[in-house]
Amino acid sequence: ARVVHGARSSLLLGVMTTIIALMAGGILGAVAGYFGGRVDETIMRLMDILTSIPSLLLSLAIVSALGAGIRNLIIAITISRVPAFVRIVRSAVLTIVDQEFIEAAKAGGTHETRIIGRHVIPNAVGPIIVQATMSISQLILQAASLSFLGMGVQPPRPEWGAMLNEAREFMRVAPYLMFFPGMAIVLAALSFNLVADGLRDALDPKLKT
Length: 209
Fold this sequence. Notes:
Blueprint: H1 2-35, H2 37-51, H3 55-66, H4 70-94, H5 100-107, H6 112-123, H7 125-148, H8 160-167, H9 176-203, H10 205-208
């Protein structure tokens, strides 16, 4: 029952952090790819700084500074994940921004914000959806790792990583206490990875041919 109830915390962390990181990274990536120049350089150099720090170590440092808890855990994991979305959105935007329909929108006097929101991002949504789906599994693992270290979801609220930590001392006498939360993490991560692979096959026109 605790494993099933713990899915609420683990899946909430994975989905919530992905949505927030996708929104923040999508805006920054679209702005960087569309405007280019100094704006692109500034945003990407900031992302390089964040990327240079391992995501788990960065999350651990942020949670240590803010304090343990699910809200601070969401903030920490989101910050560590934003650079990946900035890069994928920027690369997708760069392939679209020089297209003729974008030039036509500019010539028609359409505002840059409307061009990005109505023309650029919708045409780059395929790889973004695949990356977001795959990111959920990675963030579930990252949240479980931080909770296992005692820096994530706090008792008595059940969470798969925290349940693994609690079951360590009973590993020899009751190994099933570690088996079921561990299998839940593996199956959840595997499921989202398989969904991401299916979406990639469905949305990538090159694979269809």
